[in-house]
């Protein structure tokens, strides 16, 4: 509701403009009512709220903008309506800080854990919802669906430290999980949650491990079994005053970032342990920023620009030096260039003078593309029309349909195709052209098509084990096979490439056997004694497999030898 | 439809408009033309084409043909289109005109001694004729007669008015009848009203009964013997379409690609060799400082290879520096601080962007004494994404890269301004964005005059030091870069809504045949 309140003072266009300047994407202005009616129909939406909702996309590295509290704070500071917060770590008023003991058993399953306590927090329903929602967003984003980091939040007043993070065989773990009425062993839980639409996606993370991670308090109460489920005993409610937050992880850096987000979004003062670094101070020069951005601002101005991005900065007075404090909310800042970008955003990208670099260079075409461009023009001039087909296709397209065994092609295979259309990279341009004809059967005959494009072949001599090969392929589809037409096109292409018709030092064709072609109607093309491709009348079975009914002749050659 | 040379395309309906692809026509039957001219000569106020047809004993369409060919000669005749209605007997009407009405025939079939009703009903006209004759009170029925009902005449003689009227109409003297009478006959389906479209033909200003034969086309013989000087030539019909040439066509997306290449070349950019669709994760992601857990490296977004599954050759020293900057930081960076694995970097994929090639080129550049470069490429990239009307699993990426000492964000915006100006786009603005390998990163928006709003046209940024410094590029060198798709501007340029009609085998070849040349700035 903060957001609503804050932007009542701004018209939608102004808000849109602000998002643009700040690098947010205002996706949609809507309401709960509108959303429900769009998805489930007007009748279902009748009771829903019509409070305005702003759907905003935030940059993928700005976890601090994932919740309303952080987003509003960021924008208010940017608009000079609020001072940049300085986060501090405080010790509890009464006695020692809490401790989390990590045992060596966790190394086998989930080796890292960090924790913090938020004290004297007041939850309203909205704040509580936002707190839960932030957890869920972090789980989906930086935590990579809990595989890297899992967050657990607990009511500190229901438990007592020190806490122990350990790992045990699933049969030895037994507790009452969140929102259940009885105790289960971890083994039972895993089968219970197999049918849970939400939790079933996380089971694989620990399922086949010998031990499962588990957190106890000093009295043996289970806080959570990360990354699956919390205990019911410690659940937070609207009445919770002190929150214990634990993040278990396979990636310690990310665990720290996530914990930082969980504490800083809801309170500027908090306690945390595991030696988290709170604020990094860094020194840089205003000249660096001016130089990289292409502006000319004073050191003080630049310090102000950075402060508006929640990077508290001040001119130190030593030359053009600026001291920048990077708060725990800004895990995205890992290099001076990140600070430079923030200065540019605060300055306004569109206020920067556009300049022309003086870089002097002479242009060169890539010779293979130059040849391709020139050849395409003249092949179209020879009466053939250019087609443009996908580089990916099914195994069938380059195998069975052409009367070839897929194992005999040099095709590269894709391991994760969503459909059969993306099983392999094509090894020949022919299937694409035949499919183009099939999709255009209503067009008047003859159909004369060509394509000059890359196919992909396995090649052990390359670092990746495969290479592209640039091919020229043409087909003639009519009531008669038209071998002489396709042969004539080959002659024309050779003329264009300045290869004369001769055995040995020119080009010639010679009968060949190829299961794609009609027996006795296929020839191999030799240039300077080396085979570059084939031409001929296609086999009727091949034609039929591409759902065509007329005779068809085709030519395909490699054009790289003509460079 | 492609139309041929000498065929005649006169449509049979004389009211139809001009036919296509016919500059001239073959002369209609010369005999009919001459006969028509003689008739026109004799008639002072003109003749009707229908009447001419009946006088010459030919079909009306033949006369229409003659009229048209005479019109083509200039002002020999003038012909005005007119339409007239006239009555025509139906088949039944014609029969009655010949043999009399049904009722009259009933009357005359009845002898003085009368006729058994069942006998009468056996006659073809019996049933209709009986009831009409009864209502005319010409006959009567004696139902009590022995041997069944018998019919007798009630009058001595009758006048068959129906036959008389029909005969009048048949002779063309229908005007003597009243409308009411004609409508009655029409109701009995003996008469129908027909509209006839005909020409009213009168003498033209250069009327003559002898016409010079007009030549259709200039021939080599005429040119050789000079006879063309004396000949008259038939005028061309310039409203017709020409005959489409037999031609090949370039694909519209490739035409746009040619223009983009041209623009880069005009700006002094050298083309990168992008003919390597298969790339290792190392060059596609790791060298670009894209962390190994990044969502783009998921199975959901990237096509991985099962064969050949792994790349096996990397510049080892460079690989170590990349590993270090990811896992520990360095070059002024905190790094991502995670366990960087060679196994992940080795995985072969179909490249997700041509920036993988830019990385290879910049690495290569760093191995020599540094000279400033401007690079570009336009080639295919692959994404294992959900497909829709504007997204395919593969598309063409356009990319520009400039490396030099001291390049600024202002320089990037300036060069983008020049680039987009060449595309005819001058109103640009920039929005902060996030990209793992550029910092700052900017989305490029242009103002769309049609939509009256800002639309995204590309992405851009300055490559991160964590990408450039491990390659060995000098510290002060900045590399600015931008990218956009080739398909989107092409779809806008050629007004195509479904990408499948443009790219792939489902292409509409007619669209390819019909697509104009591509000038992006006009």
Automatic annotation (TrEMBL), chain A:
Subcellular locations according to the entry: Cytoplasm
Cofactor field: Mg(2+)
One GO term of the biological process aspect: phenylalanyl-tRNA aminoacylation
InterPro entries per the UniProt record, alphabetical: aa-tRNA-synth_II/BPL/LPL, B3/B4_tRNA-bd, DNA-bd_dom_put_sf, Phe-tRNA-ligase_IIc_bsu, Phe-tRNA-synth_IIc_bsu_arc_euk, Phe-tRNA_synthase-like_B3/B4, PheRS_beta_core, PhetRS_B1
Enzyme Commission designation: 6.1.1.20
Keyword vocabulary terms for this entry: Aminoacyl-tRNA synthetase, ATP-binding, Cytoplasm, Ligase, Magnesium, Metal-binding, Nucleotide-binding, Protein biosynthesis
Ranges of residues in domain B5: 277-354
Enzyme class: ligase
Pfam family, one: B5
Keyword Protein biosynthesis carried by entry: yes
Main localization of the protein described in the UniProt heading: cytoplasm
A molecular function GO annotation: phenylalanine-tRNA ligase activity
Domain of life: Eukaryota
UniProt similarity note: Belongs to the phenylalanyl-tRNA synthetase beta subunit family. Type 2 subfamily.
PANTHER family reported for this sequence: PHENYLALANINE--TRNA LIGASE BETA SUBUNIT, PHENYLALANYL-TRNA SYNTHETASE BETA CHAIN AND LEUCINE-RICH REPEAT-CONTAINING PROTEIN 47
Protein name stated in the entry: Phenylalanine--tRNA ligase beta subunit
Organism: Sphaeramia orbicularis
Name of the coding gene: farsb
UniProtKB/TrEMBL annotation, chain B:
Superkingdom, taxonomy of origin: Eukaryota
EC number: 6.1.1.20
Alphabetized UniProt keyword annotations: Aminoacyl-tRNA synthetase, ATP-binding, Cytoplasm, Ligase, Magnesium, Metal-binding, Nucleotide-binding, Protein biosynthesis
Localization: Cytoplasm
Pfam family of the protein (one): PheRS_DBD3
Gene Ontology CC: cytosol; phenylalanine-tRNA ligase complex
A GO BP entry: phenylalanyl-tRNA aminoacylation
Record CDD domains: PheRS_alpha_core (cd00496)
Annotated Aminoacyl-transfer RNA synthetases class-II family profile domain residues: 255-516
Keyword DNA damage: no
Any GO molecular function: phenylalanine-tRNA ligase activity
Residues in the signal sequence: none
Stored InterPro entries: aa-tRNA-synth_II, aa-tRNA-synth_II/BPL/LPL, Phe-tRNA-synth_IIc_asu, Phenylalanyl-tRNA_Synthase, PheRS_DBD1, PheRS_DBD2, PheRS_DBD3
Family of this protein: Belongs to the class-II aminoacyl-tRNA synthetase family. Phe-tRNA synthetase alpha subunit type 2 subfamily.
Protein name stated in the entry: phenylalanine--tRNA ligase
UniProt organism field: Sphaeramia orbicularis
Origin organism lineage: Eukaryota, Metazoa, Chordata, Craniata, Vertebrata
Chain's gene name: farsa
């Amino acid at each position: 509701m903060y957001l609503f309140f804050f932007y009542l003072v701004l018209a939608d266009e102004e808000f849109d403009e602000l998002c643009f300047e700040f690098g947010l994407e205002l996706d949609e202005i809507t309401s709960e009512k509108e959303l429900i009616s769009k998805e489930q129909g007007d009748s279902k939406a009748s009771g829903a709220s019509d409070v305005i909702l702003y759907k905003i996309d935030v940059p993928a590295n700005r976890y601090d903008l994932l919740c309303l509290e952080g987003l509003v704070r960021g924008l208010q500071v940017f608009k000079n309506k609020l001072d940049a917060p300085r986060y501090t770590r405080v010790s509890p008023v009464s006695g020692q800080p809490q401790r989390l003991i990590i045992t060596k058993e966790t190394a086998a399953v989930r080796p890292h854990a960090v924790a913090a306590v938020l004290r004297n927090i007041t939850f309203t329903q909205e704040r509580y919802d936002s707190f839960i929602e932030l957890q869920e967003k972090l789980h989906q984003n930086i935590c990579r669906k809990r595989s890297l980091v899992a967050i657990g939040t607990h009511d500190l007043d229901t438990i007592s430290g020190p806490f122990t993070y350990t790992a045990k065989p699933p049969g030895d773990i037994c507790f009452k999980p969140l929102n259940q009425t009885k105790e289960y062993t971890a083994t039972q839980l895993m089968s219970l949650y197999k049918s849970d639409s939400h939790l079933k996606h996380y089971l694989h993370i620990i399922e086949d491990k010998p031990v499962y991670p588990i957190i106890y308090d000093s009295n043996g109460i289970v806080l959570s079994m990360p990354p699956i489920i919390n205990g019911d005993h410690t659940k937070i409610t609207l009445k919770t005053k002190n929150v214990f937050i634990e993040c278990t992880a396979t990636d310690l850096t990310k665990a720290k970032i996530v914990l930082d987000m969980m504490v800083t979004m809801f309170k500027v003062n908090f306690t945390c342990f595991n030696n988290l670094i709170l604020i990094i101070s860094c020194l840089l020069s205003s000249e660096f920023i001016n130089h990289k951005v292409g502006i000319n601002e004073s050191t003080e101005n630049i310090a102000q620009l950075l402060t508006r991005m929640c990077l508290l900065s001040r001119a130190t007075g030593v030359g053009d030096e600026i001291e920048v404090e990077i708060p725990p909310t800004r895990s995205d800042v890992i290099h001076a260039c990140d600070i430079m970008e923030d200065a540019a955003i605060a300055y306004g990208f569109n206020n920067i003078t556009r300049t022309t670099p003086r870089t002097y260079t002479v242009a060169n075409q890539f010779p293979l593309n130059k040849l391709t461009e020139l050849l395409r023009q003249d092949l179209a001039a020879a009466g053939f029309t250019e087609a443009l087909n996908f580089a990916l296709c099914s195994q069938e397209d380059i195998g069975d349909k052409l009367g070839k065994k897929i194992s005999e092609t040099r095709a590269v295979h894709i391991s994760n195709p969503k459909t059969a259309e993306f099983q392999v990279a094509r090894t020949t341009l022919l299937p694409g052209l035949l499919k183009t004809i099939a999709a255009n059967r209503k067009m008047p005959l003859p159909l004369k098509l060509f394509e000059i494009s890359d196919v992909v072949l396995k090649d052990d001599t390359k670092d990746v084990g495969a290479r592209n090969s640039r091919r020229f392929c043409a087909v003639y589809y009519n009531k008669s096979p038209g071998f002489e037409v396709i042969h004539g096109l080959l002659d024309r292409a050779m003329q264009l490439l300045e290869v004369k018709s001769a055995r040995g030092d020119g080009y010639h064709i010679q009968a060949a056997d190829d299961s794609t072609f009609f027996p006795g109607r296929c020839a191999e093309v030799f240039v300077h004694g080396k085979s570059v491709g084939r031409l001929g009348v296609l086999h009727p079975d091949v034609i039929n497999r591409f759902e065509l009914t007329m005779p068809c002749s085709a030519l395909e050659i490699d054009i790289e030898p003509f460079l | 439809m492609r139309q041929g040379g000498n065929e005649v395309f006169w449509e049979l309906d004389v009211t139809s408009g001009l036919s296509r692809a016919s500059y001239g026509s073959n002369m209609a039957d010369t005999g009919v033309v001459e006969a028509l001219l003689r008739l026109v000569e004799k008639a002072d106020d003109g003749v009707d084409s229908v009447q001419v047809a009946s006088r010459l004993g030919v079909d009306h369409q033949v006369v229409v043909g003659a009229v048209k060919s005479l019109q083509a000669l200039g002002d020999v005749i003038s012909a005005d289109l007119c339409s007239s209605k006239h009555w025509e007997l139906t088949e039944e009407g014609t029969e009655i005109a010949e043999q009399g009405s049904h009722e009259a025939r009933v009357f005359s079939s009845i002898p003085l001694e009368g006729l058994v009703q069942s006998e009468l009903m056996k006659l073809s006209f019996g049933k209709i004729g009986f009831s009409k004759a009864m209502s005319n009170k010409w006959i009567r029925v004696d139902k009590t007669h022995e041997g069944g009902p018998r019919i007798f005449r009630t009058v001595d003689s009758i006048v068959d008015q129906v036959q008389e009227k029909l005969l009048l109409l048949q002779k063309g003297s229908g005007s003597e009848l009243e409308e009411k009478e004609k409508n009655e006959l029409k109701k009995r389906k003996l008469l129908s009203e027909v509209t006839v479209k005909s020409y009213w033909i009168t003498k033209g200003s250069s009327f003559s009964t002898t016409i010079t034969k007009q030549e259709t086309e200039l021939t080599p013989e005429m040119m050789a013997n000079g006879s063309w000087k004396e000949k008259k030539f038939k005028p061309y019909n310039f409203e017709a379409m020409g005959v489409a040439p037999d031609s090949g066509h370039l694909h519209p997306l490739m035409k746009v690609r040619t223009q983009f290449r041209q623009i880069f070349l005009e700006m002094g950019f050298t083309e990168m060799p992008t003919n390597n669709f298969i790339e290792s994760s190392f060059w596609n992601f790791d060298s670009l400082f894209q962390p190994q857990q990044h969502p783009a490296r998921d199975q959901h977004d990237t096509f991985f290879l099962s064969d050949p599954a792994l790349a096996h050759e990397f510049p080892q020293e460079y690989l170590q520096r990349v590993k270090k900057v990811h896992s520990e930081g360095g070059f002024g960076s905190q790094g991502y601080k995670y366990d960087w694995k060679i196994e992940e970097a080795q995985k072969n994929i179909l490249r997700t962007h041509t920036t993988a090639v830019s990385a290879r080129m910049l690495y290569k550049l760093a191995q020599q004494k540094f000279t400033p470069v401007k690079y570009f490429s336009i080639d295919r990239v692959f994404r294992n994404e959900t497909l829709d009307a504007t997204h395919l699993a593969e598309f063409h990426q356009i990319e520009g890269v400039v490396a030099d000492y001291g390049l600024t964000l202002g320089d990037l915006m300036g060069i983008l301004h020049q680039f987009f100006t060449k595309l005819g786009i001058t109103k640009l603005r920039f929005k902060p964005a996030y990209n793992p390998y550029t910092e700052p990163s900017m989305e490029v928006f242009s103002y769309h005059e049609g939509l009256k709003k800002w639309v995204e046209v590309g992405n851009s940024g300055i490559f991160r030091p964590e990408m450039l410094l491990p390659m060995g590029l000098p510290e002060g060198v900045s590399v600015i870069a931008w990218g956009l798709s080739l398909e989107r501007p092409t779809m806008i340029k050629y007004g195509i809504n479904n990408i499948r009609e443009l790219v792939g085998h489902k292409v509409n070849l007619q669209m390819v045949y019909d697509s104009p040349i591509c000038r992006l700035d006009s």
